[in-house]
Each structure stands twice: as structure tokens, then as C-alpha cells.
Design brief:
The structure holds 2 protein chains of 2 kinds. Chain A is α+β, with helices and mostly antiparallel strands. Chain A has 3 helices and 3 strands; from the N terminus they run αββααβ. The longest helix of chain B is centred in the middle third of the chain and has 11 residues. In chain B, 47% of the residues lie in helices and 14% in strands. Chain B is α+β, with helices and mostly antiparallel strands. Chain B has one domain: Glutaredoxin (3-Layer(aba) Sandwich), CATH 3.40.30.10. In chain B, helix 1 crosses helix 2 and helix 4 runs parallel beside helix 6. In chain B, a hairpin with a 2-residue loop joins strand 2 and strand 3. A 4-stranded mixed beta sheet of chain B has the order 4-1-5-6, sandwiched between helices. The chains are: A alpha+beta, B alpha+beta. Chains A and B meet through helix 2 and strand 3 of A and strand 6 and helix 6 of B.
Chain lengths: 102, 150
């Protein structure tokens, strides 16, 4: 697993937020740390925190993409986080139209 | 380690019994090779990638998960199993917590970083969010119907 030291000043939630905002130009972006729900989880070693997040993204970039592709886009933006201890994301990925925004 | 690989090849559903299965097979030296128990994971000709390809090809519903269906070790894996169980179709599983190399092979195969991962009829479906979504909008029923009519 990669070093967690480089970004000690930022929480993973805020890093996830800025990365998704940058890559997906989100209209709506909600990131919630739900790691506490997975405390003592089989795959969560030691006292690892910031492992599980709920993410809701509304982006024009999802237009014409199926769910698998939308989730791949989110994962691709978060490769570094996934390689440094982020275990799981619950993803809601909608277009503005689907979200009732336009 | 060999035992855990043996159980994995029998499918995670039989995980807790796998050890018994694998050790109860008589190793009769007179048995012709054709009748000897085979074990995919122990066959050095097969890479883990081959095994994953075989898994998704041979099983209508294949799930790579944390834990096994009887005892999921993660809420997301548990959710996926509960959704799929609604349809009462045969489901094969492997526990990626038991084999880090298998975990990497699955991730490389699907280009998907998290678990569970579900395949139906060889097609990559996604993780728990997607399977739940497809359950709710009826797509999963259609997909599995196409599957079970074969």
C-alpha cells in the first residue's frame, strides 16, 4: 500500500471530492465517510480509517454511459486513493437530467 | 495453502466443507489418471487469469466476494448475495480474502478495483450498487431469465 504521508493535511473525503470535481466537473457532489460502519471489517487491518465512502455525483459526463462505465470513470479518478487504503465506494452516478436538474 | 486453494476450486459455497472433500478423496495409486480428482488451481498449466476466465465462462452467475455466501465478510458482498439469492439461481463464488493473488487477477481481468464483482453469463455486471440498481429496475430479472433458459 502506498504512503499515506503525502496528504496528511487533507482528509480522504476532501481529496476524493476535489479529484471527482476536477475530472467529472460535477454539478452535484456529495462524499460521505462511512468507514465507521465497517469498523472491525474483515479487510480493514489495524486501525485503518477512511476506507469506505458513499459518493453521489451528478455530471454531464455520464450522459450516454451505462452504470458500469460511470462507475469506472469514478474509480479511474480515484486510482491513487484505491491504491492507498480506500476499500469500497458506494456510488450514485447520475446525469443532471436523471437527477432532475435540467 | 494448498488446502485453501482446493476449497476455492470447489467454490466458496462449499468452503467450510471443502477441506473434508479434498482430504476424503482416496489417493489410490491404481486409479487411472482419467479418474483421479482434478484440481484446476493446482494445475500449473493454468494461470490465475485462466482460472478467472474459466469461472466466468462456466458459471451462469459468478461472484467474487469478501467471505462466502453463507458468511459474507463485508456489507457490500452481503448485499450482493442477498439480491442474487432472491432469484434462486445457482451462484458460484470465490472468497478473495483467502487469496490475494486471485484478488489481483480478478481486478486485472475486470479492470474493476473493488469487491464484490458479479459476472452473469460471462459478462461483467459490476458491484453491489449496480446489482441492486438492476434488481430494482427489472434488468437483473431479464438478464437472469436469459441465463436460466439455456
Amino acid at each position: 500500500m502506498g504512503s499515506r504521508g503525502a496528504n496528511v493535511l487533507l482528509t480522504r473525503a476532501s481529496r476524493i471530492k476535489s479529484k471527482l470535481q476536477m475530472v467529472l466537473e460535477a454539478k452535484v457532489l456529495e462524499v460521505e465517510d462511512v468507514s465507521y460502519q465497517h469498523a472491525g471489517h474483515a479487510a480493514v487491518k489495524d486501525n485503518a480509517s477512511e476506507t469506505h465512502f458513499n459518493v453521489k455525483v451528478v455530471s454531464d459526463k455520464f450522459d450516454g454511459q451505462n452504470l458500469v462505465k460511470r462507475h469506472r470513470m469514478v474509480y479511474a479518478a480515484l486510482t491513487d486513493e484505491l491504491e492507498s487504503g480506500l476499500h469500497a465506494l458506494s456510488i450514485v452516478a447520475k446525469t443532471p437530467k436523471e437527477a432532475g436538474l435540467s | 495453502m494448498e488446502h485453501s486453494r482446493t476449497t476455492a476450486s470447489a467454490s466458496g459455497s462449499f468452503l467450510q466443507y471443502g477441506l473434508r472433500f479434498s482430504t476424503s478423496v482416496p489417493n489410490d495409486p491404481d486409479t487411472h489418471d482419467d479418474f483421479k480428482p482434478t484440481n484446476k488451481l493446482e494445475n500449473s498449466d493454468l494461470t490465475l487469469k485462466d482460472i478467472v476466465e474459466q469461472d466466468v465462462k462456466d458459471n451462469h452467475v459468478m461472484i467474487y466476494m469478501k467471505g462466502d455466501p453463507e458468511q459474507p465478510r463485508c456489507g457490500f458482498s452481503s448485499l450482493a448475495v442477498r439480491v442474487l439469492s432472491e432469484y434462486r439461481v445457482p451462484m458460484h463464488s470465490r472468497n478473495i480474502l483467502e487469496d490475494p493473488e486471485l484478488k489481483k487477477a480478478v481486478q486485472a481481468f475486470s479492470m474493476w478495483p473493488t469487491f464484490p464483482q458479479i459476472f452473469i453469463n460471462g459478462e461483467f455486471i459490476g458491484g453491489s450498487d449496480i446489482i441492486l440498481n438492476m434488481h430494482q429496475n427489472g434488468e437483473l430479472k431479464e438478464k437472469l431469465k436469459a441465463t436460466s433458459s439455456e
